[in-house]
Amino acid sequence: MFSIGFPELALILAIVLIVFGAGKLPNALAQLKKGLSEFQKGAQTPPAIEGTQNHAAPPQENESS
Q1: How do the domains of the chain map onto residue ranges?
Q2: Residue 19: what pLDDT?
């Protein structure tokens, strides 16, 4: 199968450092952390279901002469 060792991880980190730069890297990692935590929170809690009624408007009749 495929495994990531230390050389591959170091290469990926170097590329990320070149692309984002040292100044923007902490901000990018913070946004990544925030996104992952939101994803995990959304995956753990199912969406709330409020009633089963359909609130759609009834179809309108067309008047044609």
Answers
A1: 1-43
A2: 86
